[in-house]
Here is the input.
Amino acid sequence: MENLNLNSPFTLERFQWLMENAAVASYLADESLAEIQTALSKGDESVLKQIYPIILEQFVSERQININFVLQEEALMSDVIEKVEKAGFEVKTKIKERTAKIEEKEKLEAENILKKL
Amino acid sequence: MLKNCHFHRGESIKAHRLIFDSPETAKVVENVRAAEKLETVAAISIDDNKYLFKESGEKGEIKKYMDSANKKLDQAIPAHLQLAKAQTEANKYTSEANALVIRIGLAVDALKEGEKWQDIVTKENLTNAPASLVQAIKKAKSAEGLKQVCDNFISDGQKATDNLEAAQEIDNSKKTSLENIKRTAEIALEQKQKLRFEAAKKDFIRKKINQFFPDDPKSDQQKLQEKRMLATTFIGSALDGAELKADKKEIQNELESKFKGPVEHYLVEIVKELTSSKEQLFVADFPDATPEIRAYLGGILISMSIPDGQGEYIVGENTLNFVKVAYLSIPENKRNYLPAVQEALSGIRHSQKFELKKEEAITSKIMEIFPDNSSDHYLGVKREIARQYLEGMLSSAEIQTTEKWTKSELDYYLNTVTKEWFSEYVEAEMNGKKTTGWRERPDLKAILSSGSPAANAYMEGLIDSFSYTNDQGETVLGETQVNWIIENFNKVPVNARNDVNILKTYFYNQSAIFHMDEKEHPEMKVARTIFDQDGYSPALAFYDARMIKASETFSEKAGGDDALNRYRTMLLSEISKQDPANLDLDKLNDLPMPWAFEAKAIQVNQLPPDAIAASELPKELKEYAKRLTDRTGAGDMSIQFQYNGHVYYAKKPPMKVFVVPESKDA
Here is the structure.
């Protein structure tokens, strides 16, 4: 569906799309849903035009919440990933430092043994 | 990523094997394996989260996402505890290994000096050393070879500890991320529920309008439209007091119950009156209001009316005055602008209902502690002091929108007032004697010595309401709030400090700063659960203060709600990283102020040509810009931020601030 906004005018196609995608069944009364079905089957647009602004506004606002949520979550997740990578980097560095220390010690001991020989 | 890090056991693996055959070593190895597994799980889980959140976020199924985050959080907690235990064991083992190595070193020296092995074992306490280790020592051909074995032994133990530390770090991040996700999802879900409730309300009103004002081709269409418009405003206003519900059936029941009764009873009559050429409805009370505004005010009044027992409803004098005062508080030029009127009056029903419940709770507490007693000549005085104290204490109570939460909120405060203590307190207050505790504090004594007993009792109740129980089980005062009380008390004129009504008005209005309306700001409820479940914490005070500024900064701007939400998320995320009991205030103060939240780095050569150096800028703004550039490390870049409608460019080094005229707003 095209990018719907609060100014998108009523069309039957848009209305049907919203009915399928805007979770209307979770808040519209059963009575209203039945009214919509009857109007759709009879092709009576007057009822649909009454309900259209309500479900359009709800859909657009809810979509904005989803977008905000996604943005906020992305920010939170990138923070976590950064931390994980930092932790990984720190442990790698520690291991590297320890290995170098041991190697250096071994080298010194070998030199000492050679000197004694 | 960490999962690519593995152990480097090197060439000496054979020698290690001898040592690592022991049961203690097996435990370390097992822990390391557990840690490696956990870090892989953490990495996968993060990828999972990203996928799930994208998928469910796009489909709008935030609840599903929140449930999943919750489930994962539940799973993460045992793993988290297990990991902490493994970490302790690994540390213990590393330190034991170090001690053992020292003893082995001594054993090696003794062997070199020709001592007998059996004597060395006893002398250096090697009886419990792993058999394989003892064997390695016996077989060792040189001291150097043995030392190498020891070094590797320590090194391996330390690597195990490092890996566990890193795994724990990841595990903590994972846990924090899941908690943050849960909170963000809760906020989003609450916003969605609110929207759905509002949409259901609009549909409900639509149906009622069709029912009470049906289409009639024979009637005057313009008149019918006018009636429908006024009826929509009237019903909408009457339903403003409906409680937010999430379930569809509950939503319908709630709306229907608010509509039935006086609203339904007077709907047609009121609309007819308002559209009549001779209409006088509410004109005496709101003389300059348009019919639309009177329809809105009428909706409030009718929904707050009470049955008169003869089939009609009456609006109480207090209710009418309450609405009048709120209406008159709107600037004159905005009194006929519906959004302004709605803003001023939308919370009025909840606050009035809450005030009534508060009053009932106070009376009931007083009657419980000071019941009727004809022989007590001072009963009236005692009750009055008790009332003022309880009113002061309940000034801190926050307006709740449901009966259940109202009761819980009032009980939270009133349960701290026990019969024994309160009787003593009132008696002491009446006799001018102070009890001990914070009342002895010099800075608070002044507050309690300048007023009448009633005024003192009110202030004491208010201060007591800011006390809480700390981790040690002691009752302490919230210092931020107490300082706020002292600061504001000093602003009350000296000759008015004994007038309890002046104090009440003054602190009631001021406390709005401390209690942002949760109806208007549902995220406050979430914030409260994050920062301090028991009361008003300094973290929450900080959050409140910043959010008040943010609301002022973003409210007038296009896209202000988005900016406000993003700012809120940033604050919640940053503050919740802190230990509530030990706040790092410097760090908090360093968080971006709202006007600079959207600050962005731009190239210096992109500075507008008419940017001028501002020598007269407020000191705080200069300091703020400096902190901003320091934190972002702007270097040869410039930071752009907004303040009071101006765009500023801060650049370092040296720190310079440029001001661009308002017309150049970005």
Chain A has a mean pLDDT of 76. Residues 12-116 of chain A form one domain.
